[in-house]
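Intended use. Records like the one below are meant for learning the mapping from a protein sequence to its folded structure. Do not use them to infer anything beyond what is encoded.
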Amino acid sequence: MYRLIKTEGTARRGELATVHGMVQTPGFMNVATAGAIKGAVSAYDLMELGCQVQLCNTYHLHLRPGDETVKRLGGIRKFTGWQGPVLTDSGGFQVFSLAKLRDIREEGVTFSSHIDGRKIFMGPEESMRIQSNLGSTIAMAFDECVENPAEYEYAKMSCARTARWLERCKAEMARLNREEGTLNPNQMLFGINQGCTYHDLRIEHMKRIAEMGLDGYGIGGLAVGETAGEMYSVIEAIEPHMPKDKIRYLMGVGTPANLLEAVRRGVDLFDCVMPTRNARHGHAFTMEGCRNMLNAKYVLDEAPLDETCDCPVCRRFTRAYIHHLFKAGEMLAMRLTVMHNLYFYNHLLAKIRDALDEGRFEAFYKENIETVGRRI
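Structure written out for the chain above:
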């Protein structure tokens, strides 16, 4: 259950109570696609980095090691060692982005595995069953992720189908949660708003899925090629139509500046691979901007990645050492920078929560929006 504690403008401060613990919002979820953070970071590391929620991928875990295997091993939390809430996304995005051949019908989608080419069928019921086997805290509804830009008529038809699929997801989850042997009979369901960048489709779809009384609502299909301005415009268009008493999740977003802008527009929850992916290429996020640790200027730099940061990496290692590790091709370079970036993202959201608690979010936004988005 989501509780809205206070607001400042459209920005919201709240908390989400789950069977696996409380999530303070606005909050960031850490992407552990196949049950681990890329960059040799484990669930136990996440606890030290201030992480609240681990996000795992239904599609990837279904293909390998198999959701039935994970269930036999006690579920995704026991399997990975993560003790807090876990959100599993539905697999929809991966079906549409990774599968080379796919056939979309009302029943669901038949596609070829990107691993070995074998034919797989996934629809609303299959996605719910896989996520139930994983035993996640929150399951995302199975939706169609449309290419951007998309023709208006196709986007309209897709929105209607996604809404029908959502009704099937809700019915199947209710059935699974009543079944004997279900790992998490309190599993929550979030619906997903679609409609590309067409405001009328977005609003109509949001109104329709809001009537279904779900546990939360995602905003999908953004950060896929449209401009930041278009993304913010879509959020502004649908925000008035999102239930005030339900959590709002902007999927797959984004940069530190994106987080500030989206919180300001009423978003509660985020996930993104950016802090980990960029870290593996030597980019460290700080309150002053993004540092490229491959740059020669760090050869003799004995300062930490971020002099205002209290993460385990900044307490122990210098820029010079991390620069050397990247140049030497050492895996430790990626691990340390990933850990720092995850700490940075989670603590940026903690600073935002503090600012909202103290009624100074707008001042915090103005003070940091330019600097967090720049390259040093």
